[in-house]
Amino acid sequence: MKPRILIVDDEPGVRTALSGVLRDEGYQVDAVESGEACMDRVTRAPFDVILLDVWLPGADGIATLTRLRERQVDAEVVMISGHGNIESAVRAIKLGAFDFIEKPLSLEKTTLVVRNALRQRRLEVENRALRARVDRHLTMVGESYTMRQLREQVAMAAPTNGRVLIYGDNGTGKELVARTVHALSRRRTGPFVEVNCAAIPEELIESELFGHVKGSFTGAVNDRRGKFELADGGTIFLDEIGDMSLKTQAKVLRVLQEQVVEPVGGTAGVRVDVRVLAATNKDLPAEIRGGRFREDLYFRLNVIPIFVPPLRERQADIPLLAEHFMGGFAR
Fold first, then answer.
1. Structural domains for the chain
2. Predicted confidence (pLDDT) per residue in 111-154, tens digit
3. Burial class for 29, CB neighbours closer than 10 Å (0-12, 13-18, 19+)
4. What is the pTM of this model?
């Protein structure tokens, strides 16, 4: 997969020149003209490197960098500073930017800095992957080609803030994949909250997900925070998302769009910062065609798809799995 670069600069000439050079280097490149457009773009797709101009209309580069870090967007940020703006660039480095380049831009230096930023990002991904493999509770056992592919997908998806939709049959380990994504992410110190959408009765699922206020229904004797609010600053895992009713799907879609939950019986929304992982054993495109799953919710969730292979497709891993479980039982 080609590394993805996002250019954020209000000068059309700079966007065009940088886009051309970086595409020639083999990168996938997007370009936007403002900090607001940058924030919108990073919610739609993951990026490896962001080239961010210091001086922008509206939210400037420093403010945009701050928002990127607050939202835990996992991309290396390289600041573009005009002549005499070195002080701002140094401030950006202190805020977590990888490096800075000065205008007028040297295209040779720019490509070198981008290569260095990508190398740093790969090292961070590998480091997280190694840490995860040490933890046997989060070990995805197997050395087959499909399992190596799966581990690579997880290692690439985890450091981003993108939503992940995990596909696979029952018992293939979708929850393990979700927990590993969280453990390798920048949200790993935050909560991991799991919701089995198929196990909660329809009349209770909205209260479970969004919470409720006292007196909102029979039995609501106290205010209660929902799963989205409990996952604030961390990750929520919506297991068996394909079993969710259309009514609840619509409310989850609104949360994904606005990052605000409204408790049952409440009048005020609660803002949440949550990464959403979801899993299903169903063919969601077929469910969409059958009118049982919302297409707009599918596209919101399916930012990074991961397929977990069944054991019948990786039978060479059976001895390793047996050894792993016998080792655990022997402790």
1. 4-126 (3.40.50.2300), 139-330 (3.40.50.300)
2. 999 999 999 888 888 776 666 555 555 678 888 888 889 989 99
3. buried
4. 0.60
